[in-house]
Every structure is written in structure tokens, then in C-alpha cells.
Specification:
Length: 315
């Protein structure tokens, strides 16, 4: 396509893991198994919460919403990545690239907002238990979940609109397995490219850092309250309700900080691809494992719902 004597890119080539040709089949098998396990783990959590009435509480409502956002986030990226690992042509149209960026950022931001909401839920449950059912009413929980999804969609739209307002005039090789912002911005031309890159970077870092600081604030009050509990058993039980969420927060923001805060260097293309794997594939893979293994109530409910045998011939 021509615009003002400038060739405009209409499709991109996702270089991805093609720089590791001998590893493409093993990587495909590994990523496929991890993706299927991620889907199964999140669906298992959702089905357990749905079928077990004792889990019909705000904490598990937020966990279900988190599982849904995780399923959509991985679906936006991983199937296309798996297809690219089996084919020689790794092209993606400009429209499909914009759609992938929108959905990945929308559900990525939603994930961060929901983790923040879950931190607030634990703060209310431990620090203000007498007011928990008032502060975390069904309507209030619905607003928090809806606000997380709307906020994610708004920020995803802003990022996508900003990046694809740029002019891409070649080359069209994206050194990543997905339509990630930094390698795409490197392909753009025009005077406003540095400003768009700076604005998008500040927006992403501000959203992630803001959510992280709110979670840290919640846990500051939580820890202060737990330390005031006189019995060691009481402190252990109180902290056990936060352990799975806190572990997922550490994993989520640990990998996110590597992606967004690492210094950029000229030799970082393959490194960016490998680090992108940790945030796109590994983090969603670990999340249902952590919630299933470190949450005793959920673990018992999963066993009761899917693995326990009936005591008689009737269910």
C-alpha cells in the first residue's frame, strides 16, 4: 500500500522462536501442554466454585473472574504462537495484530486490577471482619469485577490506538512471538514515535505500579493486624487465607517487572522473546497451580467435587 510515496506495512512477520529452528517442535509440544494445563486448571477452579456452595463467597467470585481473564489472555496469544511454531510463514495482518494487542493488554490489565481487588478483599476480611458482609456485598463485588474489566478494556484500547496510530513503513519483521509494543514501535516511522513509546510505557508502568502499591498497602495493614492476634494458630490461619494470593502477586509482578523495567540493549531481541514466554505462558500456567495447592479450602473442594467416590451406589 502506498501513502504519500511511502510504502505502508499491511502485515507483519512475527520472528518469534524462528531464531531457534531446532527447538521449534520441542517448544511447540511444551507450550501446548502448558496451555492445555492452564485451560484445564482454570476451568477446574471455575467448575469447583460453581458447584460447591461453600465457595460462593467474594474471594472465590474474584478468583473465578481472574480465571476467566486468564483464559482469554492466553487465548489471545498462545494459539497463534503455537501455529507459528509449526509453519514456515509467520505473518499476521495489521488488523489481526491490533486485535491481538487489544485483547492481550485488556486482559493483562484486568488481571492486575483483579489481583488488587483480591488484596482489598483480604484486607477487609482480616482487618474489618465485622463489616465484611456490608463492604463486600454482592452488588459491591459486582461493581469491583465490572470495574476491573472496564478499566482493562479502556487501557487496552488506549494502548492499541496509540501504537496503531503510528505509520509503519518497513521493515515488517517483529522480533517477538506476539504483537508486543516495544518491537512494534521500533518498526514505526515518524516524528511522534518516541513520544508514543514514552506515553505507552509510562501508562503500562503506572498501571502496574499503582496496582502493586495498593496491594502492598493492603498487606501492610493485614500484617499489622495479624501480628496483633495473640495465638500462633490464629495468626497462621489468618495468613493462610492470603498465601495463595500473595504468591501469585509475587510471580505476576516479578515477571512483569522483568518485562517492563529491564534496560533495553541492542542484543536483547532473543532475550525479549524468552522473557516474553515467562509472562505469557509460564505465569498463567503457574497461577491455577498456586491457587489449587496453597488454598486448602479450594483444594479440598476440588477433591470432593471431582475425585471423591460416592459412599453408596447413588450420587
Amino acid at each position: 500500500m502506498q501513502r504519500a510515496n511511502v510504502s505502508v506495512v499491511t502485515e507483519f512477520v512475527l520472528v518469534g522462536f524462528s531464531t531457534f529452528p531446532r527447538l521449534q517442535l520441542p517448544l511447540f509440544l511444551l507450550f501446548l501442554l502448558m496451555y492445555l494445563f492452564t485451560l484445564l486448571g482454570n476451568l477446574l477452579i471455575m467448575a469447583t466454585v460453581w458447584s460447591e456452595r461453600s465457595l460462593h463467597t467474594p474471594m472465590y467470585l474474584f478468583l473465578c473472574a481472574l480465571s476467566i481473564s486468564e483464559i482469554f489472555y492466553t487465548f489471545a496469544i498462545i494459539p497463534h504462537m503455537l501455529a507459528d511454531l509449526l509453519t514456515a510463514h509467520h505473518t499476521i495482518t495489521r488488523g489481526a495484530c491490533a486485535a491481538q494487542m487489544f485483547f492481550s493488554f485488556t486482559f493483562g490489565f484486568t488481571h492486575s486490577f483483579l489481583l488488587t481487588v483480591m488484596g482489598y478483599d483480604r484486607y477487609v476480611a482480616i482487618c474489618h471482619p465485622l463489616h465484611y458482609h456490608v463492604l463486600m456485598s454482592s452488588r459491591g463485588c459486582g461493581y469491583l469485577v465490572g470495574g476491573s474489566w472496564v478499566g482493562g478494556a479502556v487501557l487496552g484500547s488506549v494502548v492499541t490506538a496509540a501504537v496503531f496510530s503510528l505509520l509503519f513503513c518497513g521493515p515488517n519483521q517483529v522480533h517477538h512471538f506476539a504483537c508486543h509494543v516495544p518491537p512494534l514501535v521500533k518498526l514505526a516511522c515518524g516524528r511522534n514515535v518516541p513520544w508514543v513509546a514514552l506515553g505507552v510505557g509510562l501508562l503500562c508502568i503506572s498501571a502496574l505500579l499503582g496496582c502493586f502499591l495498593l496491594i502492598v498497602l493492603s498487606y501492610t495493614f493485614i500484617v499489622a493486624t495479624i501480628l496483633k492476634i495473640p495465638s500462633a494458630e490464629g495468626r497462621r490461619k489468618a495468613f493462610s487465607t492470603c498465601a495463595s494470593h500473595l504468591t501469585v502477586v509475587v510471580v505476576h509482578y516479578g515477571f512483569a517487572s522483568v518485562i517492563y523495567l529491564k534496560p533495553k540493549g541492542p542484543q536483547s531481541l532473543e532475550g525479549d522473546t524468552l522473557m516474553g514466554f515467562t509472562y505469557t505462558v509460564l505465569t498463567p500456567f503457574l497461577s491455577p497451580i498456586i491457587f489449587s495447592l496453597r488454598n486448602k479450602e479450594l483444594k479440598l473442594a476440588i477433591h470432593k467435587t471431582f475425585f471423591s467416590r460416592p459412599s453408596s451406589g447413588k450420587w
